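Need tokens for this chain, all 359 residues.
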Amino acid sequence: MAGPGRYCCKDVLPFTAMVAMECINVGLNTLFKAATSKGMSHYVFVVYSYGVAALVLLPAPFFSYRSRVLPPFTFSILCKIGLLGLIGSSSQIMGYTGINYSSPTLASAISNLTPAFTFVLAIIFRMEKVASRKASSQAKVLGTIVSIAGAFIVTLYKGPRITTIASPKVSLTHALRSSNSNWAVGGLFLTAEYILVPLWYIVQTQIMKEYPAELTVVFLYNLCVSFVAAIVGLITERDSSAWKVGPGIALASVVCSGLFGSCMNNSVHTWALRLKGPVFVAMFKPLSIAIAVAMGVMFLGDTLYLGSLVGATIISLGFYTVMWGKAKEEVSEDPGVDSQESAAAQKVPLLQSRKNELV
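Here are the structure tokens for all 359 residues:
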């Protein structure tokens, strides 16, 4: 009787939440591009957005301790959260630098590398098994190679224009076409970001196994990222005026990113990592390229290039090959449901026949 409810909580709800988060991420990346094109420093952006998220989640540790019984918060867990903050701040700074040099569309295309890198790191940390003679393992290895090749195509090959749609938002479109656009440099920064993101997934999953309090961990993580980014920002941004954020697109970007990105997005990702694991979370990244291209072309007057289309298609093919291998492996390793159903089907007729004999 609890089957439908369990299915909804364990499968439908995480799936819906992850799709929604990918849509939000693309919108936040686009808003960030608009803010930095107006002159806002991406270092300052990271400090303020994660600071807003930490402020919103400040009551979380008190509610977590009162609502459930948690294991002791040890120094080891604190160190792992600190490591998580260092990884997160590095990935965020590299990612926003990459978007500043290129575009949100390229960021979404390169994000398709996440499943492949997650698979590689999972093998290194012995969270995945590879048997060279199994079709599932061959599919995962082949898909990983294809995904990485597609990312290099997106990064290094821009290609001819496919389509450009004039946007009614002239000022925003003009701002997004900044003069420091550099496709290759931006792609390298974004690739570095999406090497760190799978590592973030794995470390966060391990933390969730030891201390399953999502909001408390995310609060401490946001606090660490804001602190690390502030140190880097104070070194790189010597001009005090860069730290002043007035009303406008910059303030809107900081607040929206803090609430929906650093707060909501990180909380949902942490919850999904605890519930489903890092591979499940990584598999939704290819969705962002379709959303980014559609938003960029329709609303921002962005140009769709052949390299982005071809590379993203190759990355998606590689990704789904990895996912097919993963699904095939899980089915072969977990036949428990089918065996239970077949055993139940065999027992019921026997009980019924025995009852008939007694009557």
